[in-house]
Amino acid sequence: MKFLSKHRRGAQARTNTDADLNAIRWRILVVLLIAIFMSLIGVSIVNVALPSIQHALDASQSDVQWVLSGYALTFGVVLVAAGRAGDLMGRGGIFLVGVGIFTLSSVAAGFAPDAAWLNAARLAQGIGSGLLNPQGVGIIQQFFRGAERGRAFGYFGTTVGFSVAIGPVLGGFLIELGGLHIGWRLTFLVNVPIGILTIILGLMWLPKPLFKRPPPPASNSPGASKRGLRSLDPVGAALLGLAVLAILFPFVEFRSSPLTWLLLPLGIVLSWLWVQWERRYARLGHSPMVDLNVFATPSFANGTIIMSLYFLGMTSVWVLVALYLQDGNGKTALESGLFGVPAALFAAYAAHWAGRRVSRYGRKVVIGGLLLALLGLALSSAVVLLHEAGYLSIWWLLLTLTFIGLAQGSVISPNQTLTLEDVPLAYAGSSGAIMQTGQRIGTSVGIAIITAAVFASLETFSWPIAVSIGFGTIGLVVLVALGFAFKDERDRKRKHERG
Question: Class for domain 293-499, per CATH?
Fold first, then answer.
């Protein structure tokens, strides 16, 4: 009887411990999602506020371009180094530092007296977002396993969809509320209470200690007794940061000077040097910024390519829709934003649905999402052409773009889950950041190339035909991504057959 009583008490203690761990996991996820919501709202609101910013600050077209480009550049440059720093020094601490920088820079942007001050604040915002984003992916990898990880990434995708939906509408409302000179400032200052709430909850709920000392190199290495800076691989971080900057810069600043394209070959050379350095660093027994062996994992390599291609194509859809509706149909910025609301809400639902089922259906969920993207592109193109012919109202785009939303929810979060499932936990942050860097490069390259193709088409064709050409180009990119999705499905079957 004593043994049974002791056994029951032990089982009860384990049950209580599991319940406590489960509560901690979901509280941590809440903190992450609040921060992701803040950073995404900060992006989508700015798109609506650009005309007001230009008028209120008497900013040039180049200044306005840098409101977007500066954020994208610093965000992409720090991602991988920030992910590795979180892996080594504590993801919770780096996450809160990122939130703090993003919040303070939002204050600076909201009170900016001129365009130069605003762009400096946007550069800082990009750094803050680049610090916090990879920690979110790494923390989900750390605290969630199996089906729960899929659910967590599903909630992550739901937050993304809701943020994208509410951002333009909230931005339009704040600009209407505050007027020409105050409204655009409110679009930045709205981040401040969200950031403060995130920091408070993070200090309460994130595991302690928030920071830890980086581990030493392997004991058999020449520098086994050295800790700290060497563990962070500063040379590798600098090489990769410069490589990403050299690759991204021509695509975000291609209108300023043709000479910026000379940075592309430099970026390729720097990428090669980074790979050689990482291999040498590992041979010396140190911990490299990125374990290059992770690219030998088919699920990671295929998933990263799929994600990069998806962002290269599909991010441009909303740019083309906004341009077509405003320049080709005379809609206001707020009306243009409303066209994306149903799609974003469907994206949120699809991400939640797919997150609960990705562990069961695997890559088939992503394949289905890519097929939905192709369907949405074809139907949206048809609506644009039929509207031009006088057969349909342009508001039918509300319906066809929902397929794009369903695709977003079915591709992004499930692909994150599948891509990172075989990645060692020690490299969760940096590997997730590599995938996010592919997204950033894909987004910048895609927007530059596809919008350039559309504007070139406008010299010969009308808006509907030019937009259809853009949609067709995006469709070709999605088809390539679909090919890699089928390849990954085949690789998984072969792995399962080998046992």
Answer: mainly alpha
